[in-house]
């Protein structure tokens, strides 16, 4: 490539809404549920897609999209192969950040906290809910590991389909779930002229550990 690729003039204004303190739910999990439902209603493609940012033991960062599968006040959950790069990073440094972005509503949510593995029962339950072909793909792949060709990968799937012809391929014990336990939420609403609305939820330092809400400058 020769020369600079210049996107400094690429911009749009944010016109879809505004956010006021009195509109926020006192519970950030309920606020997230409300915004997620609104994103789905607005037609956001893959509304449950979230960036998962991790770092290895030396602090080198990495990020990728994963899909939120369920959440409650214990935390936000997704599933993956624990042998993957993100799995190795979480094993070495069990803290992460999540980001949702819903352009149809000009909204973003950032969430930070420690990560813990889900138990085997949760992993097994979700694995069995997945479509048959997805189960074979997960069982055949050692995620993030080098393989010589696409044909070799498809051969691994075909071998499992032959060995387990009744759609009963077992879950590899390395395939499981994770839960991020939020310590901080930030809800961002895009506004005109870049004067955005930003609110942070964080736990108080007293014995109640109640959620405190503060406005941030954009």
TrEMBL record:
What does the record note about the cofactor? Binds 1 FMN per subunit.
> The organism sits in which domain of life?
Bacteria
Span list, region Disordered: 1-22
Flavoprotein keyword on record: yes
Domain Pyridoxine 5'-phosphate oxidase dimerisation C-terminal, chain residue ranges per copy: 175-218
Write down the EC number. Answer: 1.4.3.5
Reactions listed under catalytic activity: pyridoxamine 5'-phosphate + O2 + H2O = pyridoxal 5'-phosphate + H2O2 + NH4(+); pyridoxine 5'-phosphate + O2 = pyridoxal 5'-phosphate + H2O2
Pyridoxamine 5'-phosphate oxidase N-terminal domain location: 46-162
Keywords of this entry? Flavoprotein, FMN, Oxidoreductase, Pyridoxine biosynthesis
The molecular function terms in GO held by this entry are: pyridoxamine phosphate oxidase activity
Read off the Pfam families from this record.
PNP_phzG_C (PF10590), PNPOx_N (PF01243)
Cofactors named for this entry? FMN
Q: Cross-referenced PANTHER family, in alphabetical order?
A: PYRIDOXINE-5'-PHOSPHATE OXIDASE (PTHR10851:SF0), PYRIDOXINE-5-PHOSPHATE OXIDASE (PTHR10851)
Its annotated function is as follows:
Catalyzes the oxidation of either pyridoxine 5'-phosphate (PNP) or pyridoxamine 5'-phosphate (PMP) into pyridoxal 5'-phosphate (PLP).
Q: Which family does it belong to?
A: Belongs to the pyridoxamine 5'-phosphate oxidase family.
- Quaternary state and interactors: Homodimer.
| NCBIfam families given in the database record | pdxH, PRK05679.1
Protein name stated in the entry: Pyridoxine/pyridoxamine 5'-phosphate oxidase
Q: Which organism is it from?
A: Acidithiobacillus sulfurivorans
């Amino acid at each position: 490539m020769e020369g600079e690729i210049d996107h400094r003039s690429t911009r749009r204004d944010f016109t879809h809404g505004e956010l006021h303190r009195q509109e926020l739910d006192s519970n950030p999990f309920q606020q997230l549920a409300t915004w997620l439902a609104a994103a789905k209603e607005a037609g956001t493609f893959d509304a449950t897609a979230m960036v998962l940012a991790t770092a290895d033991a030396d602090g080198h960062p990495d990020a990728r999209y994963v899909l939120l599968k369920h959440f409650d006040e214990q935390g936000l959950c997704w599933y993956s192969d624990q042998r993957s790069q993100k799995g190795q990073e979480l094993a070495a440094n069990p803290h992460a950040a999540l980001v949702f972005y819903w352009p149809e509503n000009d909204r973003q949510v950032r969430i930070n906290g420690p990560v813990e593995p889900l138990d085997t029962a949760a992993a097994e339950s979700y694995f069995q809910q997945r479509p048959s072909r997805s189960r074979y793909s997960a069982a055949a792949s050692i995620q993030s590991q080098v393989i010589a060709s696409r044909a070799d990968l498809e051969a691994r799937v075909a071998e499992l389909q032959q060995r387990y012809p009744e759609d009963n391929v077992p879950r590899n014990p390395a395939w499981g779930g994770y839960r991020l336990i939020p310590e901080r939420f930030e809800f961002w609403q895009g506004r005109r002229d870049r004067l955005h609305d930003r609110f942070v939820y964080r736990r108080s330092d007293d014995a109640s550990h109640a959620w405190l809400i503060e406005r941030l400058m954009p």
